[in-house]
């Protein structure tokens, strides 16, 4: 293996250059300025860990946003993965509707978020929205409920808007599923295993890696997603649907406080790394081939 | 055993129907709204009381400079995707197959893009691009987009390459093939499904990316398609009909690319199953 | 292998440091110090009045007129930023890097940022030196934007007068007239409700525009104290009776006197509710008048059923737009002069006239006449102007007087106020907290 030293370097270098140019400098600036007092326009002055202390002691909304983010990471890593993988297993049986469903399920992910935001606002409109209209028809009496703004259902509604993300999980898993040769299925059938048992005991273990990958992508997307939130609840009511990226966006671009925002960024990165490393361990992704 | 099957079938049917409904509604709604007037969209009427507003599509081109943005988006998305796929499939291959000290570090480094909040990157990237005179250029955007898609491609390629048994490469080495040739002739063809999947995701990311596109460009001539959608929203006067018309125009190429890629994945799977 | 990788790493780190230093060191693009006589001076300008914006046509005409007039001498490079949020965010990013365009619109606190980062130019001496410009800008606009120490960092190009519109038919059926006091206002709302009409078109999304106009009116007409509060820029505290009482009234309106979708609604929802005759009143400005005759937005013939009124206690929002800031403090002499020419043009007679005709923006002084054709075509605007002249209380709205953090806080907490999560006192405290985020630390 070591004789390929020069290939290793050659194959890695472009990626490393890209990483340094786009990320490394930014991360250094991020971490560095999180220890300063930096508002847009003012000069930068060192302030030690003041930002971090403020975030953890005086900023209740930030703590709420951490909990919301963790809740959403947990939900995405479990429910969405379950739905995505389940669908992949069903579709892999090559029914007549396989390619149709697979395409259709992914489409919401293709529509730009500017349009999606307005779409949700209109569909969930308490007075005119499609959702309430359907429920009214079913229940027989006028159903008026503010899905996004009522404190009881705000969190749930926002969680629902991320359901189509499971479509991504499905196509990832399906792409790798077909690398399982038919002979393995046949051998298991001969041994008397039912289709369901085959799925659980043979397919899933082989998909361990891609499911882990999908989990990482889904979980970490909760550290980035704010476009739907911006356009529907804005993080409200209060801070009920505030997640960390949304709060960071507000701190940087509404409060103009870059120093504090970058401190939030550092905490977010740490949370993300913990999630990343945990998922890799759970799915044993570090095992050598 | 026989009793379970109808229950399973019904559950499966309900499940699939649910999936199809929640997926299809967004696009149908957007498509239908592109033919409606503002008032109808805001009042969420069904049907087309005031007729089909084909002029929304005309207005879309008039209000926003769609053609220029389209061209830029195509260029940026395709080039950034190609660069991203090449660079990170190479890196993934080396990570999976070779042993070397800094492997874990590089994996974590390349995963960092997943956990760095985008809003925190805007300012540093603006400064970096300004300093290197790449601000307000398509080249700058391409580099940034290729890098932002780093972890997704990297993980997908890593995951897929791990499913390829080493025996094929071993055979190639025994036959005298070098490292590079093995990569090109054995690995690349086998990873077509992964390439297609990662490629689609990267392309869609570039095609729909708004925030960096806005911050890192200034001239109208360099802007991309997602920015066009915001031309229809303003504080007191928004033309939602035209916005949805523009959305349809913007989304259709992505759907086409997605379907093309699906074909690649399927054909790749057929040939890939040879590698039992 | 280790040493090779180490060498590569070392090279990378060096490159990184070079980039970082270069990035921190660079400010603006290199400016043309030696301008040849035949190359026009290039200045930069950023605008959000593009696309479907009310003033997009007016803005384009002004820009074209300027480029034509100064052909060969000055060229304006325009950055288009669709939607107000995109504009503000991009300008903030540029402000942080000290790279704001030569002329910008200083809304949403951008003027303050330009002052802080040293790019804004004090134009007071420049205005005083140019009698022609001074005449069309007028004392009112200058005094409005003047700082305490007599400096002037921004100049508006339009006056804003805002009352509210009401549906005359609905009022007639209910048997009421526009309220003269706030008690009458609330009892009118009750009567409208009993008659089967929804009184108010409100919203809590975006910047809670229509809701906050009512809030500003309630405070601004509350005696001298209230009036002073709503004329103070960036107050330190909202923990006072004026604000709490007004919030209590707004709370009742949001709970009982508005549409079900008001909580979380964006402007388009509120406007739609009034234009589709779902509600009887909407607090909004004269730019809405063209919508009354637009059948794709409003019910047929709505324009004949709409009246305009001052707020109870004869109050009206009377203020100037924050206006345009000259950000050329560190540029070459040619660029400063060219940008100044542009600023003068943008806020001068011709531009004000174009903005009036094309987007219903009221001019700064009576020196720019409102033509008779315009008056004939827009009776509601004429009514509003006449009423405003009789107003007892003039005040500003929340967007002009509050920090962006406070506006954000409004939007996040109105739903909580309505659903009983917090009290008006608690909400006022939160507003104060948000205002303090901008205090110098």
TrEMBL record, chain A:
Residues 66-279 form the ABC transmembrane type-1 domain. It comes from Vallitalea guaymasensis. GO terms for cellular component: plasma membrane. Keywords: Cell membrane, Membrane, Transmembrane, Transmembrane helix, Transport. It is found in: Cell membrane. This is Sugar ABC transporter permease. SUPFAM superfamilies: MetI-like. The keyword NAD does not apply. Belongs to the binding-protein-dependent transport system permease family. It is a multi-pass membrane protein. The chain crosses the membrane at residues 7-31, 72-92, 104-126, 154-175, 216-239, 259-279. It comes from the Bacteria. GO terms for biological process: transmembrane transport.
